[in-house]
Amino acid sequence: MDDITKREPRTIRAEDVNPRYNWGRHLPALGTMGVDFEERVDYRRLQRYRLARAQQALEASDLGALLVFDVNNIRYLTSTKIGEWERDKLSRWALLPRGGEPILWDFGSAAVHHKLYSPWLDPANCKAGLVGLRGTVDPSFGLMKHHAEELASILKSAGVANMPLGVDIIEPPMMFELEKAGLKVKDGQQVMLEAREIKSADEIALLNRAAAMVDGAYHLIHEQLKPGVRENDIVAEVNKFLYTHGSDDVEAINAISGERCNPHPHNFTDRLIRPGDQAFFDILQSFMGYRTCYYRTFNVGRATDSQRDAYKRCREWLDKAIELIKPGVSTDTVASVWPKAEEFGFPDELSAFGLQFGHGLGLALHERPIISRVVSMDHPTIIKEGMVFALETYCPASDGYSAARIEEEIVVTDKGHRIISLFPAEELPIAARY
Fold first, then answer.
1. What are 354-368's pLDDT values in tens digits?
2. Is 192 found in the same domain as 223?
3. Pair 70, 35: CB distance under 8 Å
4. How many domains are contained in the chain?
5. Is 96 exposed, middle or buried (0-12, 13-18, 19+ CB in 10 A)?
6. pTM of the full structure
7. Spatial separation of the C-alpha atoms in residues 292 and 212, rounded to whole Å
8. Are residues 234 and 190 both part of a single domain?
């Protein structure tokens, strides 16, 4: 550890922090292969950018270091990932001291693997560690105490032990051990979200590639959505399609049809699709960690005037919001064009949260900015170039049970925006048309 703390701090270069965009060109939907005849995603440039953004955000804060257990933050700082099984285990963590390099504690042999295959990390900074596996290893066994004291020693050597330690998520007994080791624990989530809110050209290319995969998944749904098919049948086929095309995590697929459309349940069942159903889907998946949130609504065979009207209103609400998107616009301006909760059948804004909604996309499903009447009217934030987010609207039909749900993914450019969710949704699509 002495060698780590004595090394010269990395200089934060402008080219690592400032995104390189060429908004004059179409956003690429790249393949997964590297080739010698085109520049595609530069993963080492991506790694330098993410680390530099985090270092910059840390320098601008009052924190001495960031301790992260959230797997998205670990990936952002270290460009490592070991599998979706560990997402909720709190089984690995990373430390970024002010002015220093990230140190990673990983699950057993994964630490050895990183030393061999992750040359951007100092091998001495790839460590095996174990704190508790969500309490299954009892804190009384001493592992948390051991690692808390280890962290305190590293921060002391780095000269930042007297500054607060920012933490994103943590097991309570581990936090208690950090405090016993003399560390002052503060919220580190806001610093990491600050770092992650502006996407580089490489991140935008990956988000666009992820959206292109969902374009194809919706074509599949349009072909397979017909009477006799169940919601879960569609979910299964879309999972197969996405994993075949390179997804590293199909986080969820909402499949909602018929009488289940209103109110929105945010799930799927084994309900049978029937003629005349209105049905909407949300596909949440990631490519190289970068996520989608992408709704589309269909009717099966035919549509009533009530269903068509719901779709039209849903589309109008969405388009009004999209028209406003450009750098410098505040989120309250966007939220103000959406109907109030009472106007579409809900008692208050909290009950309607997530229905007329905007949220950042990146390594997590919900990043900055959040756009909602719940928070944006009183606490607006400014939309910036390089943000990527989803805007989604929902409109119940007058029949009392159907509903329309549409969502577009947006990249904020220097003067406006680009839509990267391209499956046609200007008008209500009819699957299995009779």
1. 999 999 999 999 999
2. no
3. no
4. 2
5. buried
6. 0.95
7. 10
8. no
